[in-house]
Amino acid sequence: MTMYRVRSIKPVESKWIAIDYDGTAWEAANQVHCDHDGEGIKSLVTHRLTDDGGYELVKFACMEVEGYGDDGEPISRIFETGIWRKDLRKSEPKLREIAVQLGWERDPDELLADWGGEESYESALERRQDRG
User: Fold this and answer.
1) What's the number of domains the chain is made of?
2) Residue 77 — very low, low, confident or very high, per pLDDT cuts 50/70/90?
């Protein structure tokens, strides 16, 4: 295990959060984003359609790992999928606006495209079921 200090730098700078993690610095950053989203880490949120016609929330934050500079793409994203009911919801920022706020200089649609090495939905579901 390695001790990392991680923080969000966009859309809002957070306090440093220490994490003892068995993985890369950027995997640790993503774990901090997952663990502290809404509680110290603010995310930019949009949604996308799933293959089964449902929706999932996609949350983005630009993360920093102390001592790792610009080593890789520091944008973390997490997905939330669950039971959705019909209702009104507040408007969400357009993907282009999210890209600007994150400092993403490529095509904004790439923020929602599959990223290599990312955990699959099936793997996340299995991990959740293992927790009981």
Assistant:
1) 1
2) very high
pTM listed for this prediction: 0.74
CA 120 to chain centre: 14
Q: Comparing C-alpha atoms, which of 116, 40, 50 is closest to residue 79?
A: 50
Interatomic CA distance for residues 132 and 100, integer angstroms:
39
Q: Under DSSP, is residue 47 helix (H, G, I), strand (E, B) or coil?
A: strand
| Strands 2-10 and 55-65, bridge-based pairing | antiparallel
Q: 20 — phi, psi (to 5°)?
A: -95, 110
DSSP assignment of 56-104, as one string?
A: EEEEEEEEEETT-TT-S--EEEEEE--------------HHHHHHHHT-
- The domain in which residue 74 lies consists of 2-130
